[in-house]
Specification:
Layout lengths: L2 H33 L12 H4 L11 H4 L23 H14 L3 E8 L3 E6 L6 E7 L6 E3 L3 H4 L19 H15 L4 E9 L2 E7 L5 E8 L5 E3 L6 E6 L6
Antiparallel strand pairs: 1-2, 1-9, 2-3, 3-4, 5-6, 6-7, 7-8
Length: about 250
């Protein structure tokens, strides 16, 4: 056998080996990258959850972070998306949120109903601190971690976290000021609520629109002060809070 033929056979063998390794490793690597900590996601989230945020996502409260929101909504919720489908009640959404929270040894402190989804805050029973934010599809009941700050800034339970987390660099008062400043720039006439939830690495606040009614929520990075309005919820409909959180 000529040396040239031996070289060709050797190269082919290497390529075949690499192809086999890639076929075995790629699915695992892809699930780790895109799946994050998604126990119980039930398939409600597509690739767009992590792939379609757009420019400016991490750069303060610019275009990709504050505007549009297309690609950030993890499902196509709304009556038009599922003609004739029955919408979940608040009690049903709460039950689903509590079942999901139990998988993480967490409890549910709040559930809000919006046009596009139900939103739930999950807290640590021992510390009372916010652990993660979850969304419930109002028609299929699919439950999973909310995209955006909950996955990108959450230092303990987020997509790029390692189970660690400590005190936030910014106080809740400082974060509230950052939130109000962002609202005045992006949604003039809006007012951030006094009360906010402290998560590991960020805060989330509800805010009222110019008419004084709840218009949505936004999160503030506890280190950089960057603000991120949650643009995917749609109009506010109703709210439930655990008794210990009511004031």
């Amino acid at each position: 056998m000529s040396r040239g033929l031996q070289w060709v056979i050797g190269v082919c063998a290497v390529l075949v080996t690499l192809a086999i390794v890639f076929a075995v490793v790629a699915p695992w690597f892809g699930s780790w990258v895109w799946g994050g900590f998604s126990r119980g996601m039930m398939g409600g989230y597509g690739r767009g959850m992590m792939g379609d945020y757009g420019p400016g996502m991490m750069g303060g409260y610019g275009q990709g972070m504050m505007g549009g929101g297309s690609g950030m909504m993890p499902w196509g919720a709304g009556p038009s998306a599922r003609p004739g489908a029955a919408r979940l009640s608040m009690d049903q959404a709460r039950t689903l949120a509590e079942e999901y929270a139990a998988e993480w040894d967490l409890t549910v402190s709040e559930v809000m109903e919006f046009e596009n989804n139900f939103y739930a805050i999950l807290v640590e029973p021992g510390t009372g601190r916010g652990a993660m934010e979850a969304l419930i599809d109002p028609y299929t009941g699919a439950v999973g971690p909310e995209p955006g700050p909950n996955m990108m800034w959450n230092e303990k339970y987020g997509h790029m976290a390692f189970g660690l987390g400590g005190p936030n660099a910014l106080t809740v008062e400082e974060a509230r000021e950052k939130a109000q400043s962002a609202l005045e720039t992006q949604l003039p006439g809006s007012q951030v609520h006094e009360k906010g939830t402290s998560f590991y690495g960020y805060y989330t606040f509800d805010f009222d629109g110019p008419d004084g009614s709840i218009a949505g929520m936004l999160s503030v990075d506890a280190e950089t002060g960057a603000a991120w309005i949650h643009t995917w919820h749609g109009g506010f409909l109703a709210e439930w809070e655990a008794e210990e959180n009511e004031s």
